[in-house]
Structures are given as C-alpha cells and as structure tokens.
Amino acid sequence: MRLTQLMLTTALMTTILAGSAWADTVIKENFEEQGKWQKSIRGKGTVELVEGGVEGKCLKVSTSKNALVYYSIPLDVERVRGKRLIVRAKVKLDNVTQGEKSYATAKLHIGTKAGKQHKNYAQRFIGTRDWHDQILIAEIAQDVDRVVLDLGIQNGNGTAWFDNLVVDDGVKEHEIISIASVANTNHRQVGLDDIPIADLRLAGADFYVLPINARFGRTCAVLRGKDRPDLPARIETVIPVDKKGSRLFFLQAAMGCDAARQDPCLIYTIHYEDGKSVEAPMREGVDIGSLEDPKDLPNWKVAWTSKRDGKTIGLGVTTWNNPHPDVPIKFIRLSTPGTGAVPIVVAISLDPKRK
Fold it and tell me: What one-character-per-residue DSSP string does 226-264 give?
C-alpha cells in the first residue's frame, strides 16, 4: 500500500495511536513494503514482513540464543532536532524472554548521536500478549547529528510483531491538566489494565495518562458511589489549572452506571481567578457512561475500549463548555453526591482557544 511516509504538513490523527491535531507526523508506517528500512541480524534470528497484522501485513522479528534482530530507519535530523518525539505502535508478543542484561528484550528504541555523545531511549517489553499499544517518548537534543529508530529484539529470545507505527513531534492542540494531585488509586485496580500511558489523543482531545510509577502508583481519581460507600465523596486537594480556555475535556467513566437515572454522580467545581465558581455536573446516561458497557451518550463519546473477562470495558470523553473563557480557571475540585454510580476520572485537558 505505501512506504514510510515523510509528511511535510500537520496531520489530524483520529485513532488511539494518533498524535495531536497539530503534530508534525515524521513517520506513519503499516509495514506493507520494506522501503528505506534496514534489517540487522546478529546471531540466530529473522526479520520479515508477514500477513496477519492489525490490517494487512506487519513486521515480525524472531530470535533465539540471545540474538539481536532490528528493523531500523534513520530519521530526518532537521525535522526532529530539539523535538519531543512520541513513537506509538501496536505490538504482539509470543514468549519473549529477557537475555542476560536488563536491556535484552523486545523494544521500541531510538538512538541518537551528537558529536561523540550517544544517547538511547527504549520502551522494553517481554512475555506473551495479543496486539496492544506501546509508546516511547524521546527528547531529541538540539545539536544532534544522527537519529535512528529501531524495532526488534536486542539479545533476547522469542517473537514480536509490530504494526501501525506513528512517530510525531508531540506538539499538542490542547493543554494537559495534571490530575496527579487528586489521584487516589491505580487504574489497574478499576480494570483499566491495558490503557496506554503518557500522551494520547482520544475523541479529538489530547490527554496524558499518569504512568504507574508516578504518585506512588496512584494514577486516577475514584469517588464514592452507592456500591462503594468507603470512597471519598469529596477530594480535599484540588487540580491546579491557572489557565484560560474555552472548553474542558474529561476522560472518564463510571462503575454501576444507570443510564435511566440521569442524576449527577460526579461534580466538577470550576473555580476562577476572580473568586467566582461554577459547577459542572456529570449526569449518568448523559455526561458520563458505563465502564462495563460503554455506549455513546449525548455528551460522552466512547474513546477507548478493551476486553476484561471476555467483556468490553471503556472510557469516554465529555466536553464542558466554559461560560467564562476570558477569566483564568484557578483550580478544579471533585465531589459526588455518593448515591449513584462510582465515577472514575483518568485525565483532563483544556482547549486554550477562546472562541
């Protein structure tokens, strides 16, 4: 279908693997042909393009006896110099085991050279797993003179497949509002094991999902509901914003949601710099939907889904239009009546454009 595409314009990416609407897409590759990619094999291993990808063909690498197998391509230095690159790909693994060193795994890898200085960035993975999302973030120095992207297995063993590769420069249309200050649980504890961490673009909005190693493993906020009276009805800490904007986007869902109830199970109180505040209630069946049975609602669009125990779970994006776009939002507070569904807040972002 296509070789590696070096795009000179910004790209609007609307899937989970996409970058910002204003990001410069450096590479978009579905591995239909080899193109400018180079194969490197040291030891007993193979690298090939095979059928069975997410769509069409994909890249397959296999190693044994701690071989190194890479599929590599140099990146345009002028386009990536001084940029924050985000590498996203679909990955599938079959019995990938670590070699003698900690780096001896399957991986996404970027190697850079600036004069005599070399720097490496890697997202490593082992085990057996069906198609899932992997993300690598690399900060490219301004004085870099060589940048190479590698996909493969370095001195490990097993088989890995790669597909739907996107590399962009990380520029965002929307500003991330960190929820680290209110995070009180781990997204795995509410069944969101497979959600990609770090930068995402879902339902047209940019988000940042906190990694497990941040905030003592606390990555999302979960509040009280009728099935979880032990959880807080109000989180005393607040979410700092200190920015102007026309809209807020909430990546969220609720457990035990009843679409017929249409009562608020979560309330965002938006506090402004001038001392005023306004409430943004999230009504079940209207503004927030079910984690266990995600379906589009009037103001909640399903943006990410996965499988848990054979059933579909998911998160959606809610849009809230700010009635005071010319006044800076100071902070946001979370609360709930506690009598309905159990709300889960995973990420928040702000549209800085004031319409």
Answer: TTBTTS-SB-SS-EEEEE--SEEEEEEEEET--TTT--E
From residue 218, give the alpha-carbon distance in Å to each of 207, 212, 335.
Answer: 17, 7, 18
CB within 8 Å of 294: residues ≥ 6 apart: 253, 302, 305, 312, 313, 314, 315, 316
Q: Is residue 17 part of a domain?
A: no
Shared domain for 108 and 249, answered yes or no, is: no
Cα of 198 vs its chain's centroid, Å: 5
C-alpha 355/C-alpha 353 separation (Å) is 6
19: confidence class by pLDDT, cuts 50, 70, 90: very low
Contact between 24 and 7 under an 8 Å Cβ cutoff? The reply is yes
Residue type, 306: S
* Strands (E) located in 75-204: 84-97, 106-114, 117-125, 127-139, 146-154, 157-168, 175-177, 198-202
Other residues' Cβ atoms within 10 Å of the Cβ of residue 203: 20
d(CA 124, CA 110): 12
What type of residue is 148? V
Would strands 84-97 and 198-202 be described as parallel, antiparallel, or unpaired? unpaired
- Provide the residue range defining the domain that includes 338: 175-351
pLDDT digits (tens, 9 = 90+) for 161-192: 999 999 988 777 899 999 999 999 998 888 89
DSSP calls for 190-238:
GT-TTPPPEEEEETTEEEEEPPTTSGGG--BEE--BTTBTTS-SB-SS-
Q: Do residues 75 and 86 touch, judged by C-beta distance below 8 A?
A: no
Buried/exposed code over 128-143 (b: 16+ C-beta within 10 A; e: otherwise): eeeeebbbbebebeee
| Residues written for the chain | 355
> Are residues 156 and 220 both part of a single domain?
no
